[in-house]
Structure of Molybdopterin molybdenumtransferase:
Amino acid sequence: MREYKDALKIIVDQAETLPSESVSLMHAYQRVLAEDVCIDMDMPPFNKSAMDGYACRKKDLTNTLTVVETIFAGKNPEHIIGENQCAKIMTGAVVPEGANCVFMIEDAEVIDEKHVRCTNINTKSNISLRGEDAQSGDLLLPASTLLEARHMPLLAMAGKSTVQVYRQPQVTIIASGTELVEPHETPQPFQIRNSNSSQLLAQLQQLNIKGHYRGITKDEGPLLAEQINIALQENDVLILTGGVSVGEYDLIPDTLQNLGYEIIVYKTAIQPGKPMVFARKGKSYCFGLSGNPVSSFIQFELYTRPFLSALMGHPYKPKELILPLNTDFGRKKDARLLFAPAIINERSEVVPLEFHGSAHINGLSNAQVLFEIPIGVKELKKGDLINVRCL
C-alpha cells in the first residue's frame, strides 16, 4: 500500500495538461486560464469620484463655492475648477481638472442654485485616483487560475470577451458489478442499487465537467474489457467503481493490464478506500475506485479531483483547517490514515458523526468535513488539534 500523499503525488504527476481552447467570457466560469491576463488600460482610467457630492479645491473648503456645472457618470467635464468654484458630481464621474477633493452631499449646505458651502472641512478627498487599482500592463490573473465569479469582472475590465482556457477532460463512468441494478429498478434479494454513479457524476459537475455514464457492466472479463476499451477510445479518463479488490471476481486490474495499461497505483493506505487502481496507457487514464459508496466518494476527493484539475492546468488545493476535537475518539486499527465524517459546531470544534464504515452512506450525507487520524494513532482526546478537510 502507498501512503496517501505519496500516491497523490504519483497520480498527479502523471497528468499531461490538455490543449487550450477559446471560450466566451459568459462561459468561462469554472474553467482554467491557459494564458496570463494583463490589463490594457489604467483602472480607474481617470480620477473618479467615490461619492455623490461636490468637487473643489481642498484649500477652498472654508469658503462659499460657486457651482459651475453638474457632472454625472459618463459625462466629460466642461470646466476647469478654479478658486472658490466647484462642480456637483455623481459617484463614478470624472473629477474635473483643478479639483483635488470631493465633499459628500451630506456635508453640503446649499445656499442657492449656484452656491454651496462645505460643513465638514476635515472631509476625506473621496477620489479614486487613476491607476490606483491597476495600471496598464499589470498582470491581473495568471495562467492556471481556476475562474470563479470574483474573477469575471477582472476579465471584463481587461477587455476579454473571449478567454483562452484549458480543455476539459472527457470523462466516462462505468459501474462494475453483477449484483448492481439501476436506481429505478427493484433489486432482487441478491442485488443492490447502483449508488456510486450518480454520486460521481455530481462530483464531476462540481468541477464543471459533464461526465458520461455508460451504465452497469457485469463482472465478466471479455465484457468488461470491451466496455473499458470503448470508453477509453472515446474519452480521456474512465472512472470505474467496483471490481478492484482481491476477490475472484475483482477483474479490473488484470483486465486493464491485458489491454496494455500500466498500473501506476494499486491500493493506498487510507481508510476507507484501500482498494483502488490508477492506470495509464499513453494519454488515456483510468481510475478503478471502490464499489463502496463512501470509499469511492473519498477516493474521488483525494485522488481523482486533483488529477482532473491537473489535466485542466490547475493545481488543486483542498480547503483544510486545523481545529480542536470536541470529544474523545478511538479506533481499533491504526495501519491506515483514517478520513472520518464530522460537522463543525458553533465553537469551531470538530464533532464526529456516527460512522459504520465504507458502505454507510448516511454517515457521510450530513458531513461538512472529513477529519484525519494519522497512521499509528488509535486514540484522540477531546481538545486535540486535528486536520480537517472541507467538503
About this structure: The chain has four domains: 4-17+168-311, 31-43+133-166, 48-128, 320-390. Residues 66 and 385 are 65 Å apart (CA to CA).
